[in-house]
Specification:
single chain, 271 residues, mainly beta, Immunoglobulin-like, 2 domains, six-stranded antiparallel beta sheet, 1 helix, 28 strands
């Protein structure tokens, strides 16, 4: 694959041309894919690549691609542009995954920031890109067939972050890249407890953010018959200094209750 290799290949063009704004994977992120805390690789129009943050196995990476790197295959018909740019990511020797870095907006192709999940155990990420149109044209940005490679940091440790029934939280610090099991005891927040038909009719959602950034959610409980038990979800700690948590209980009858340290949230230092 060459940086500007143009091929008349209709089959590939049909699969790699991002031409619909209805595809959620290509929705604009406005700098907030994966909450804005994920590392970002920027592919600039001068064919340089800049990495901000650290790619960590089990996390995610944002891809910010300048469409002017690929100017071939552009065209329009019926008042609308009919070309698009697709990215490809391969982790170690795994199968490549695709993601959109463009979408149609009012008949114009515009860039979007993609978020790509990094598999557990990955050590290396390889990326390349293609532009294609409805008439079968396709061109590649692949570093003259060598593609673009980036090192992935393995998960450092797995740590249980315990939100116990006595309202203690341990430990008080974690490391960037650690895999954290969020263990939340439902007894901390049982104001909305109840069951119906032999099934728990309430649940607890956890929320977390790094350094005051965008908020992520995760289900910290699950139903086990009429009882609610800890679900023990996991997350990989992004780079930052402060990891904040708070929790919300709800039920089918409209109850809402919060466990948020009286609005100050629970803070775990990131080192």
């Amino acid at each position: 694959m060459f940086r500007a290799l143009v091929l008349a290949l209709a089959t590939l063009a049909a699969t790699s041309c991002v031409a619909s704004s209805d595809d959620d994977s290509t929705a604009p992120c406005d700098g907030k894919c994966d909450g804005g805390s994920a590392p970002t690789i920027r592919f600039d129009d001068d064919f340089t690549q800049t990495v901000s943050g650290e790619l960590v196995a089990g996390g995610a990476v944002r891809i910010d691609y300048d469409l002017d790197r690929l100017t071939e295959c552009r065209g329009s018909t019926g008042g609308s542009e009919v070309w698009g740019v697709t990215g490809y990511a391969q982790f170690d020797a795994g199968a490549p995954v695709t993601f959109g870095v463009s979408r149609l907006d009012g008949g114009r192709v515009v860039p979007v920031i993609a978020s790509v999940d990094v598999p557990d155990g990955a050590t290396w990420m390889t990326t390349w890109f293609s532009v294609s149109n409805r008439w079968g044209c396709i061109a590649y940005d692949s570093n003259y067939g060598e593609n673009y490679g980036f090192e992935v940091t393995p998960v450092a440790h797995e740590i249980v972050l315990d939100f116990a029934a006595d309202y203690t939280t341990t430990p008080d610090s974690v490391g960037a890249g650690d895999r954290v099991v969020v263990h939340y005891d439902p007894a901390r927040l049982d104001e909305c407890a109840g069951s119906t038909g032999g099934h728990a009719a309430w649940g607890i959602t956890g929320y977390w953010q790094v350094d005051g950034g965008a908020v992520h959610s995760l289900a910290v409980t699950r139903s086990e018959g009429s009882e609610l038990v800890a679900a023990d979800p996991t997350l990989v700690v992004p780079s930052g200094r402060d990891l904040a948590f708070w929790f919300e209980a709800t039920n089918v009858w409209g109850c809402h209750a919060w466990d948020s340290n009286y609005g100050d949230n629970f803070h775990v230092a990131v080192h």
